[in-house]
Amino acid sequence: MPSITIKGIFPTLHERIKGIARRHHRSLRNEVIACFERYAEQPPRSKAEMTAEAARLRDKLPPVDHDLVDRYKRSGRP
Question: Cβ-count burial of 43 within 10 angstroms (0-12 exposed, 13-18 middle, 19+ buried)?
Fold first, then answer.
């Protein structure tokens, strides 16, 4: 059976996955496999769907004061 080694996982993520595995009464290995299976079963999203989601997320952001950004960028520069 094929195997995967995942290196460099942040400790906080590792602990979160372990906690989820405990709640689901699974081993860490089986929880990761279940996550992969759920992700792999999702139908691919179209470009239009991703664009619409990006627009919804963008609309939640506060407006940008470009003059303020320019002042911050120039502060402390000759």
Answer: exposed
Q: What is the pLDDT of residues 25-50, one digit of tens each?
A: 999 999 999 999 999 998 999 999 99
Q: Which two tokens stand for residue 17?
A: 């996955």
Can you give the residue ranges of every domain in the chain? 11-74
Which of these, 8, 10, 14, lies nearest to 31 by C-alpha position?
Answer: 14
Q: How far apart are CA 60 and CA 29, in angstroms?
A: 36
How far apart CA 67 and CA 69 sit, in angstroms, is 5
49's tokens = 């769907």
